[in-house]
Write a structure and sequence with these properties.
Elements (H helix, E strand, L loop, with lengths): L1 E5 L2 E4 L2 E4 L1 E5 L2 E6 L9 E4 L4 E4 L1 E6 L4 E2 L2 E2 L4 H10 L2 E10 L5 H12 L6 E8 L4 H14 L3 E5 L10 H14 L2 E5 L3 H13 L6 H5 L3 H17 L5 E3 L5 H12 L4 E5 L1 H5 L2 H5 L22 H11 L4 E2 L32 H10 L5 H15 L17 E5 L4 E2 L18 E2 L2 E7 L2 E5 L2 E2 L19
The structure holds N-(aminocarbonyl)-beta-alanine and zinc ion (ZN) (2 copies).
One zinc ion binds next to loops.
Length: 466
C-alpha cells in the first residue's frame, strides 16, 4: 500500500522544509516538493503539522526486576504508551546479573518482548558480572545478535556494580569489537556510606535519596569513567541519565579534547527538582526517586542541561523509563528511602516535553528532532533505517501539531502506572498521527496499533565510532 503525506513541514537535523512524503509499504519511497507527488496513493493531509521521524528512545526498562519488584510496564503496555507519545523505536536493557550467563539473560529478554511489542525494539545488554565468559559473550553479541552496546554500573554495589578493573576490561573489549560502553556514573561505594549514615540519623524520607547521591559523586564517577575509557584506547563511552552540571562539565571537557565521549539526559532532569518533587510532603516524593537523582533548583543544573543539549555536549534525550506504581511498589520504601524502587516512567511524554523546549525557546526545531530521533538512531546503530525521513528509511513518521495541546495526567496516560511524574504539565503541541513501518498506529485520537507489530531490531555499530 502506498500513502502520500501532503502539506506538512518535514523536519530534519539539517532544516525544516515544506515537502510531501511518499510511503511505499514499510519504507519511505520518495520526498517531493509540495504538490509534486504522484497521483494514485491514499493521501494523508498534514497541513499545519510538522512531519518528523518517529521518536527513538534508547533507554527503557520494561518489566525490569529491580528494587524487590518489577517495573510496572510490560513490553506490551510500555510500547503501546510509547506509540501514543510518538516514539516508534525503543532500545531496552536485557540483563545479565552477577553469576548468570549473558546468553541466558538475553534469551529471557527476547522471551518477554517477542510478539508483544507495538513498536520496533532493540536491546542493549547490562553486564552485571564482568569476567572472562561475559567478555567473550560481548564479542558474540556484537557479531551475531545485533547488540552493540553494553551498560555497566559504578553504582548499586551488590546488584549491578562493576569495579574499576572490570570496567576497564569491558572497555578494552568494546574498543576491539566496536561496541559502545554505556555508563551509570555514580560512585556507589561512597553513596552507600552516605545512605547508611543518613538512616542511622533517622533521615528516612524520600528526599534523602537525593541528598545522599550528591552531584560531586556523579561528577567523580563520570570523570573516572572518562579516564578509564581513555586508558582503554579511547573506547566509545556514553554516559546515561546525566543530571548534574558538574558531570556535564566533565563530559564537555573530554569532548573539547576530541574524546569519544557522549551523554544523554532525560526529561525529568530538565523539568523536575529535588525540592519540588523529591521533597514533596510525607512519602509523596517517592514517586520521583530515581538514580541519578533529581537535582536542586537552587543550583545551575537545568539551565546547564538545556545548554548542553544546544551545544551537543548532551547528544540524546532518552527517558530511562522505569515505572513503578506508588501503591505497593514505591511503598516498599515507607520508613526507609533506600528501599524505594528507583525509577520514573515517562516513555509516553518525551517527544512532547522536548517540544515544549522548542516553544520555550530553549531548543531549535531541528535540534528537537536530532536529540529525540536522529542522534539516538546514529549512536546505537539504527541509522539510517530509523531516525530520519529519507528515501529507503523505515516509514516511522509522526505528524506533530504545533497548534494542539497536551495535558499530561494519570487520567489520560497509557503507561501502567498509578501516578504521573509530570502530572498537570501542559504542552503547547500534540502528537497527531503516528506511523510505524507504514502502518498507522494513531490517527485522529484513535489507536489502531496492535501487539506483535513491533519487530526486533538487529543493530549495527554506532555511526560515531572513530
Ligand atoms: O532510577 C533509575 N534510573 N532506574 C533504572 C535503572 C537505571 O539505573 O537506569
Ligand atoms: Zn542507570
Ligand atoms: Zn536506566
Amino acid at each position: 500500500m502506498s500513502l502520500l503525506i501532503t502539506g506538512g513541514t518535514v523536519v530534519a537535523p539539517t532544516g525544516a522544509v515544506p515537502a510531501d512524503v511518499l510511503i511505499d509499504g514499510e519504507t519511505i519511497a520518495a520526498i517531493f516538493a509540495p504538490g509534486r507527488g504522484p497521483e494514485g496513493p491514499d493521501v494523508l493531509d498534514a497541513t499545519g503539522k510538522y512531519v518528523i521521524p518517529g521518536g527513538v528512545d534508547v533507554h527503557t526498562h520494561m518489566e525490569l526486576p529491580f528494587g524487590g519488584t518489577h517495573a510496572s510496564d510490560t513490553f506490551e503496555t510500555g510500547t503501546r504508551a510509547a506509540a501514543y507519545g510518538g516514539t516508534t523505536t525503543i532500545v531496552d536493557f536485557a540483563v545479565q546479573r552477577t553469576g548468570e550467563v549473558v546468553a541466558d539473560g538475553l534469551a529471557a529478554w527476547h522471551a518477554k518482548a517477542e510478539g508483544n511489542c507495538h513498536v520496533d525494539y532493540g536491546f542493549h545488554m547490562i553486564l552485571g558480572g564482568v569476567d572472562d565468559e561475559s567478555l567473550k559473550a560481548m564479542d558474540q553479541l556484537v557479531a551475531d545478535e545485533g547488540i552493540s552496546s553494553f551498560k555497566l554500573f559504578m553504582a548499586y554495589p551488590g546488584v549491578f556494580y562493576s569495579d574499576d578493573g572490570q570496567i576497564l576490561r569491558a572497555m578494552q573489549r568494546a574498543r576491539d569489537n566496536g561496541a559502545v560502553i554505556m555508563m551509570h556514573a555514580e560512585n556507589g561505594i561512597a553513596i552507600d556510606v552516605l545512605v547508611r549514615q543518613a538512616l542511622a540519623r533517622g533521615e528516612t524520607d524520600p528526599i534523602y535519596h537525593g541528598l545522599t547521591r550528591p552531584a560531586a559523586l556523579e561528577a567523580e564517577a563520570t570523570q573516572r569513567a572518562i579516564q578509564l575509557a581513555s586508558v582503554a584506547n579511547d573506547c566509545p563511552l556514553y554516559i546515561v541519565h546525566l543530571s548534574a552540571s558538574e558531570a556535564l562539565a566533565a563530559v564537555a571537557a573530554a569532548r573539547d579534547l576530541g574524546r569519544n565521549v557522549f551523554a544523554e539526559t532525560c526529561p525529568q532532569y530538565l523539568y523536575l527538582t529535588l525540592e519540588d518533587q523529591l521533597g514533596a510532603p510525607g512519602f509523596e516524593g517517592a514517586k520521583w526517586v530515581c538514580s541519578t537523582p533529581l537535582r536542586s533548583k537552587h543550583e545551575s543544573h537545568q539551565r546547564d542541561l538545556w545548554r548542553g543539549l544546544r551545544s551537543n555536549d548532551l547528544a540524546v534525550v532518552s527517558t530511562d523509563h522505569c515505572p513503578f506504581c506508588f501503591k505497593d511498589q514505591k511503598e516498599l520504601g515507607l520508613g526507609d528511602f533506600s528501599k524505594i524502587p528507583n525509577g520514573i516512567g515517562g516513555v509516553e511524554h518525551r517527544v512532547d516535553l522536548l517540544y515544549q523546549g522548542v516553544v520555550d525557546g530553549k531548543l531549535s526545531l531541528q535540534r528537537w528532532v536530532e536529540t529525540i530521533a536522529t542522534t539516538p538512531a546514529r549512536m546505537f546503530g539504527l541509522y539510517p533505517r530509523k531516525g530520519i525521513i529519507a528515501p529507503g528509511s523505515d516509514a516511522d513518521i509522526v505528524l506533530y501539531d504545533p497548534s494542539g495541546r497536551t495535558r499530561i495526567s494519570v487520567e489520560t496516560h497509557h503507561m501502567n502506572m498509578d501516578h504521573s511524574a509530570f502530572e498537570g504539565y501542559e504542552i503547547a503541541g500534540k502528537v497527531d498521527t503516528v506511523i510505524s513501518r507504514g502502518t498507522i498506529l494513531l490517527a485522529g485520537g484513535a489507536y489502531h496499533g496492535r501487539k506483535g507489530h513491533g519487530k526486533f531490531l538487529h543493530r549495527g555499530l554506532s555511526s560515531y565510532l572513530n
